[in-house]
Amino acid sequence: MLFHVEMVVKLPPDMPADQVADIKAREKAYSQELQRQGKWRHLWRVAGSYANVSLFDVNDNDELQEVISGLPLFPYMDIQVKPLCRHPSSIREDNT
Ligand SMILES: O=C(O)CC1=CCC(=O)O1
Prior knowledge:
Pathway: Aromatic compound metabolism; beta-ketoadipate pathway; 5-oxo-4,5-dihydro-2-furylacetate from catechol: step 3/3. Keywords: Aromatic hydrocarbons catabolism, Isomerase. The protein has about 100 residues and is α+β, with helices and mostly antiparallel strands. It has one domain (about 1-85): Dimeric alpha+beta barrel (Alpha-Beta Plaits), CATH 3.30.70.1060. The protein has two helices and four strands, in the order βαββαβ. It has helices spanning about 15-35, 60-70, and strands at about 1-10, 40-45, 50-55, 75-85. The protein is elongated, with a radius of gyration of 15 Å.
């Protein structure tokens, strides 16, 4: 199943710099592993903001919840999820 996910990062302004660096490094490693596994299909920065738009390809809602709640930045993000399905006019057959 494909999901469009928007994440807006809201780190506390008073979080110490070394803690910020650590959480961002862990977030990067976690997301890159999921990208290698093909579960995190696209990751785009939203220009002008500390937010991303992502496309996840996971088995079901439960797996999406597991993946997203494992994000190191999860406690510091507003997250919006939109489930996607095939558009009848799409010429793609493989949902890529
Ligand atoms: O910087 C972000 O948008 C948060 C984030 C998600 C995956 C990642 O590496 O950073």
